[in-house]
Amino acid sequence: MIPLNEVSIYTLLRMAFVWQLLSFAVYLVGLLAIATFFFDNFKSVVLIVKSILEPYFQPQLPQTLVEKFGKWAVITGSTDGIGREYAKELAKQGINVVLISRTKEKLIAVTEEIENEFKVKTKWIVADFSKGREVYTHIERELSGIPVGILVNNVGKMYDYPDELSNIPEDTIWDLININVAAVTIMSRMLIPELKKQKRGAIVNISSGSELQPIPYMAVYAATKRYVRCFSQAIERELAEHNITVQCVTPLFLVTKMNQYSDTVMKGGFLIPDVKSFTRSAVFTLGKSAETTGYWTHGLQKWILMVCRQFRMGYQAGGETVSAPSEGPPAARHRVSCPPQESTSLPQSVPLPQNSHPAIMEKLDAIQNAVANVASQMTAVVNRLDSVERQLSLANQFQNSIERTQGTSRSNDSFPAAFQRSVTVSIVDMEIEELRPLIPMSTMEQVQAVEELL
Fold it and tell me: SUPFAM superfamilies, per this entry (predicted)?
């Protein structure tokens, strides 16, 4: 080893320089990562501020929406919620509107309201987008000759209530695809040639906060809204050279008819604005930002969600496992299904290492016995449920035989039917009362025994 007093000053300076250079590189990478994260989450704010300041430095640029995009706008799903308020906000700025929806009476009422309040031209088109491709020929014919400058793809459909995919009716799934996916695609394709011809225009696609992550029990809806975002980003690049703006609006919870399944959401609040306030803010961002949540509290919520998702991804990358929640939405939690009897059986023994500590082996044996007892109890539960099902089946057969024998309507056979129903109810009630204490008591005792052993 070289003595310290023999180390030259030049060598020490060189080592110090290399150390400082490495430290600077690490700090620089960290700052760039933080800056990229914040820009990615706040770029819409940056672009809005830029658009607000631009007229002071370039006053020759178009200022109003009419100057930027044209005098006509088409809004789908425009008789309720976001679509209706979009039509009113655009009309407020002097833009003529074409309203497309499936209910003629509502269309007439909204167009009259807009004409009387804002003194602009209106047109309405009846179209049910759940019908698929057959409606677009009619829409294209009605829009012929109108110099459309803004298209708002707002029409959408939500589940009646969250549920598992296998429980969603097939017709509902096709409606979700036809309305949430096909409508935004075909309407954009229909009007892009007109926008190119005018060398200006805007397409506004209304997505949803559901697209930010996969959502169990709302799988199809969330996936269709993710499609809207990806579709918007793609055609934005395609149409940029033609001076056509494409904006994707990603609202979170709003007080709208689509969220009537939740009483909490319909109450509104600081984080859940009313549709009018949201739409006024969202229209303000048109032409200023390609992606927006539309409302500042929604932007804050989205940023928090993104931070949590980044944290979770980093946590998983570090070797930890994040388990899925054990409970779904209320509609799913109340649906209880019992597994087949053979699926409840467990192995009678688990091989243990020969050199295990005796105390550990004793506890493991006790835990294994406790689990086997729980499995035995569940097997008994399944058998009792099978008994209930057989009783109901026999009761139904008894009812059918009475009706076939007498050849009369159910209303003329009130006494046998009432007697049969009372017997069935009594049997089922007895079975349920016997099953009620079986599951929680035995299971809780076994769980407590395991906890004591641990």
Answer: NAD(P)-binding Rossmann-fold domains
**Where in the chain are the domains?**
15-54, 63-315, 336-453
Please give the model's pTM, rounded to 2 decimal places. 0.61
CA atoms of 88 and 94, how far apart (whole Å) = 10
Query: Each residue of 352-376: pLDDT tens digit?
Result: 444 445 666 666 666 666 666 666 6
Scan for tokens 């395991």, then name that residue: 450
- CATH class of the domain at 63-315: alpha beta
The predicted pLDDT at position 301 comes to 82
The answer to whether the beta carbons of residues 308 and 212 sit under 8 Å apart is: no
Residue 217 is a catalytic residue? no
Q: Which pLDDT belongs to residue 334?
A: 39
Single out the catalytic residue among 86, 136, 217, 221.
221
For helices 134-143 and 183-198, the axis angle rounded to 10 degrees is 30
pLDDT digits (tens, 9 = 90+) for 240-274: 999 999 999 999 988 877 777 677 777 778 788 88
Helix (H) or strand (E) holding 123: strand 122-126
Short-list 87, 129, 94, 134, CA closest to 112: 87
Q: Cβ distance 153 to 187 under 8 Å?
A: yes
